[in-house]
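Input/output pair, single chain:
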Amino acid sequence: MLASDYMSLAVAAAKRGGPATYTNPQVGAVIVKDGQVLATGYHHYFGGAHAEVDAMQQLTAAQLRGATLYVTLEPCSHFGKTPPCCRRIAAAGLQKVVIGQLDPHPLVTGHGRDYLQSHGITVETGCLAATVATLNRHYDWFYLHQRPWITLKYAMTLDGKLTAQRGQRSLISNHASYIDSQHVRQHFQAILIGEQTLTIDDPQLTVRLTTLAHPPVRLVLLNNSTAAVNTKLTQPSTVPTYLLCRQAAASDAQLSAQPNVHVCIADWTPAKVSAWCARNGWQSLLVEGGSHLQADFVAAELVDELIIYLAPTVFGGQGLPTVTGVAAASPLTFTTPQVTVFGDNLKLCLQRKEAQ
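Output:
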């Protein structure tokens, strides 16, 4: 087997972590000696053992000595929720470490590699780099750009409408698309909607198909908190809801008294929402409407990805377009769509070219 084959095994292992790793990256590791795979490990959940340790603890000291470690992300070099992996690797006497990608986290980047090299371990980086880069797009983007990865997600008709009539909810996508949209949600750490979506849809913004230890927090951009009174989002819940209000209101105290409901008053703009998410450590933001909020993010050029569910329907008339409001200074351009078929619906995934 080639180095890329072993790294492919590590990539497959990393994906087993999924959303459970939360703000930690998905990482996989494979230990090889004399051409044989001795152990495979991955980061199971946030706060748990890192992939390298998960693999190493399956082997004896004799098996580890002189072995080669293939790991998708640079071994950590700092004390966090777990001790530094690079020290344990060096102490175990591994001969070589092949790294898919250096860690963009400022506490790690390059330091793990340098520690290993300073302790006589041969280090190679960049193995299967393009494939490895798909594992932690949100994590990587967050530390490289100091803001969350921002995705706009919506369902629309063939004529680009969100609703058949303004002010009324319209069912557009099919059940298979709904199931997929739930899977999409579980990969984001924050979900944002605007006031019209709150008042018309009264959504829960929860992930209902699986139980997450760290479900996405729920954000609502409002003129004031009055519109949020007696909505599903402000009922007692273990999932935090943040009401991002531009003005104070008499309802602020009532809502703030609810468990996990927070009223935050500021002159909110997409840029300020993004910066606030970054300060809270949320690496990804899913914007789920409505039309004016989506237009604001487009105008601010704070869109890294579009996820669109397209239904074979035409509303015509005065239905609400997908993006209505202030125009962007220049058009936002996206990659060729990745298309998935869900019955009579199409799912289109497009990443902004500047985000590549």
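The chain has two domains: 3-137, 147-351. The mean pLDDT is 96.
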